[in-house]
Amino acid sequence: MVRRGRPSGRWRWLTRAFEPRGLSGFALLGFFFLSVMATGLGFADLRAANTDAERLSGPELALTGATTLFVVSAMVVALHHVVADRRLWVKALSFVFYIFFALWSVGFGYGFFWKELAGQEFTERQFESVVSRIAGSMARASLALETAETATVGAAGLAGERARTEASQGRTCANRPVSTPGEGPLMRSRFSFADRAANLGLEVRQRWIAPVADQRARLEQRVTALVKRTVPAAGATIDEAELGVLEKLAGAARLPASERRALFVSVHEDARAFAEASNGLRALNATAFADRLTQLAAEVGADPRRPGSPDPARASDPGYCWDVVLHEKLLAAAGQVRAIEDVETPEFEFLEGPKATRAAFFGLVGWMAGWFGVTPDKETSFTFGEKEFLALFASLAVDLGIVFLTIIRDAPARAERPARSAKGQGGSPTPPRLASILGEAPARSRKRKRSARPED
Fold first, then answer.
1. Is 227 left (phi over 0), alpha (psi -120 to 50) or beta?
2. Residues 219, 345: contact at Cβ < 8 Å?
3. pTM of the predicted model, to two decimals?
4. CB-based contact 193:300 (threshold 8 Å)
5. Cα separation of 395 and 36, whole Å?
6. For the residues of 171-190, what is the DSSP string, one character each?
7. For 79-109, how does the pLDDT look when each residue is reduced to its tens digit (9 = 90+)?
8. In the chain, how many H helices and how many E strands?
9. CB atoms within 10 A of CB 395
10. Could you tell me which residue, 19 or 28, shows the higher pLDDT?
């Protein structure tokens, strides 16, 4: 017979699973497997980041999975004894080990959740950072070359302009304020000086700029494709191989991680090679051309001992011209060329996949160390944003779910105190309950009947 409101024993096994204790066991099992999965994958990424292939072999994955299963199981067992064991020393020891295993689980679980929630955004930030560093290095190297070319070409152009002014108007020399235009030794000297300045500008281009011109143009196209994410116009003269590289660079965000990293390494190495070539040319030519510009400035300069007056040693030279404007221009050009410095290419840093997970893990360690006044080094520095905190919260939520369900299932119930017998009025005994009287009366009557039968 089935009692009203309660299922029969035949279906008890089915309904028991939907009771609070059955549901709590199901939820606890789910949190357990989720903790094993998140901790194991985070731990596997951390181990893979230390390998060249950035992946683990089959035996290594099996060992990682087994280690994670043992650790999470030990954490659950330790938590059970913290909640259910009545021995104080067992509670204390279990609590210490639970904290240790929980830190393991939360830390590596954070790496997994961070990869799922913030890994893509971190990769995009890394992508933009790499592109900006390469573009900055390229711009600095190009600026150094442009400075050398602009300084010498500008000085040569001004020398030609001053020569033409002397030929048409005269009065370009401070030591000859009344010089007249037309053919003469002074005009021939001015044009000869302009030719030497122009030749110096051409020599700078041939010996300093031209050797890296093709390399510079190719790298500028690649950086443009990276920054603007578009291939240069079809009208540009680009061979098929280079066009393929530019197409990959324009769509680098959509490439697989390994191919994208190889592409970035290639562009970074090209930028490094260009910077080294530019630095080598600077070392060979900067001082030499600066000295030659200084010599040209001295030819149209004042007395070295008295800067405000013409050179008396050249007073009898009909071609000597103290040109204040051209002298200052040539000295400025020499100073610009001499001030060009070496260009340093920044180190290539692009964290993606397991290496990014490792950076996030050590970022968590550094962030926690900051609570205790410990300043993390460069390797462990990491910016915590909203998604990083969300990943940490998700990892904590898994372990907190295990804690909550373990307390619900294993906490010992408080023993109910026996009801105290009510005292009668004035200290008299408590009257017996009616149920006990009714329950005992039939028993006594049946006993009397059995004892009276033999007498009958």
1. alpha
2. no
3. 0.58
4. yes
5. 11
6. --BTTBTT--SSSSHHHHHH
7. 999 888 889 999 899 999 999 999 888 888 8
8. 13, 0
9. 25
10. 28
**Predicted local confidence at residue 379, as pLDDT:** 47
Structure tokens at 248: 């990959």
Query: How far does Cα 413 stand from its chain's mean position?
Result: 51
Hey, what are 446's tokens? 């049946």
Q: Is 180 left (phi over 0), alpha (psi -120 to 50) or beta?
A: beta
pLDDT in tens, 129-143: 766 777 777 777 778
Answer whether 124's CB lies under 8 Å from 253's CB. yes
- Least Cα distance to 127 among 349, 275, 358, 355 occurs for 349
pLDDT given at position 74: 92
176 phi, psi to nearest 5 deg: -135, 70
**Residue 173: strand pairing partners:** 176
Residue 91 identity (one-letter amino acid): K
Residue type, 336: Q
What pLDDT score was predicted for residue 380?
43
Q: Are 182 and 167 in contact (CB under 8 A)?
A: yes
246 and 226 Cβ atoms separated by less than 8 Å: no
Widest distance between CA atoms in the chain: 176
Q: Are 359 and 382 in contact (CB under 8 A)?
A: yes
Under 8 Å between Cβ of 343 and 140: yes
Phi, psi angles (nearest 5°) of residue 454 = -60, -35
pLDDT at 456: 41
Residue corresponding to tokens 């197409």 = 247
How many angstroms separate the CA atoms of 169 and 156, rounded? 20
Instruction: Give yes or no for residue 451 having a pLDDT over 60.
Output: no
Integer Cα distance of 28 and 73 in angstroms: 12
CA distance 353 to 256: 11
DSSP state of 135: H
Residue of 356, 357, 381 lying closest to 39 (CA atoms):
357
* d(C-alpha 235, C-alpha 9), whole Å: 84
